């Protein structure tokens, strides 16, 4: 199973880059994992919020494959404990899911078309975090879930 982390916006900022890269590297011991940063449309500054979300959605939906399992990160999604996330990942593996795409939307969230396409909507917290912190927490939590599945010492509960 492959895992891809997609984020709309800028490349990883320095303060988070090392951590994101470290947890992604560790995660590759369990599943193939990498990041795909989706640039905002060229004319983003001139677009209204709804038009920007539609433009970003067009880019996202064009790049998704038909059988991708899309997980949308959104504060209104379902919250999971680390062990629950581990079981959720195991379930996807048991179902022979080929590719899981974790999506962090743009600054204003995602268009309704992306919400409808999502197979699952996951909330890291009811709090809203900067995108760079979400990237770091996402990579760490997916790595943590994998260590739980292998009963390794990283997760202490």
- Principal-axis shape: globular
Mean pLDDT: 94
Uncertain stretches of 5 or more adjacent residues: none
Tell me how many strands there are.
5
Radius of gyration: 15 Å
In CATH terms, the superfamily is: SPOUT methyltransferase, trefoil knot domain
Instruction: Please name the CATH topology.
Output: Alpha/beta knot
How far the N terminus sits from the C terminus, by CA atoms, comes to 26 Å
* Secondary structure: helix percent: 40-55%
CATH hierarchy, class:
Alpha Beta
Structural class: alpha/beta
CATH architecture: 3-Layer(aba) Sandwich
Number of helices: 5
* N to C succession of SSEs: EHEHEHEHEH
Tell me the number of structural domains: 1
Strand content: 15-25%
Largest beta sheet: strand ordering: 2-1-4-3-5
Largest sheet: 5 strands, parallel
3D structure, described in words:
The chain is α/β, with parallel strands linked by helices and 157 residues long. The chain has one domain (2-149): Alpha/beta knot. The chain has five helices and five strands; from the N terminus they run βαβαβαβαβα. Helix 3 links the parallel strand 3 (69-79) and strand 4 (99-104). The longest helix is centred in the last third of the chain and has 19 residues, at 131-149. The chain is globular.
């Amino acid at each position: 199973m492959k895992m891809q982390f997609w984020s709309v916006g800028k490349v990883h900022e320095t303060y988070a880059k090392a951590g994101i890269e470290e947890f992604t590297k560790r995660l590759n011991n369990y599943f193939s994992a990498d990041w795909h940063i989706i640039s905002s449309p060229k004319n983003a500054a001139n677009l209204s919020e709804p038009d920007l979300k539609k433009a970003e959605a067009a880019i996202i939906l064009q790049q998704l494959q038909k059988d991708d399992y899309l997980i949308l990160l959104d504060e209104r999604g379902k919250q999971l404990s680390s062990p629950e996330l581990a079981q959720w990942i195991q379930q996807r593996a048991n179902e022979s899911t080929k590719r899981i795409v974790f999506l962090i939307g743009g600054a204003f969230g995602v268009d309704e078309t992306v919400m409808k396409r999502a197979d699952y909507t996951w909330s890291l917290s009811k709090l809203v975090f900067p995108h760079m912190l979400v990237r770091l927490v996402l990579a760490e939590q997916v790595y943590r879930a994998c260590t739980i599945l292998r009963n390794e010492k990283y997760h202490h509960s």
